[in-house]
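Page 37, continued from 36.
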């Protein structure tokens, strides 16, 4: 995660800059096939909570993120990047 906008659904869920997403709803590293899959899941989950598992430093955390419209762009308000 290299951006979490203030006041966004992502910020309200507890996501922070630098979090490593381990699970995003039904998407895990074993079935991840690109960022468009996350975009599709987000679009189909507007207003519905998604369960996330993130790693922050050495701590694994369980968060709930509900994609929704807000004052900024998109439904999340964060920038997800692929870590190789």
């Amino acid at each position: 995660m290299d951006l979490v906008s203030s006041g966004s659904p992502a910020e309200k869920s507890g996501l922070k800059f630098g979090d490593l997403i381990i699970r995003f709803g039904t998407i895990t590293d074993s079935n991840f096939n690109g960022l468009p899959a996350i975009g599709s899941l987000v679009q189909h989950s507007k207003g519905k909570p998604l369960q996330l598992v993130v790693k922050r430093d050495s701590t694994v955390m369980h968060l709930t993120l509900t994609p929704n419209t807000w004052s900024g762009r998109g439904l999340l308000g964060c920038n997800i990047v692929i870590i190789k």
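Helices lie at 9-13, 35-44. Flag for discussion at group meeting. The CA atoms of residues 56 and 63 lie 12 Å apart.
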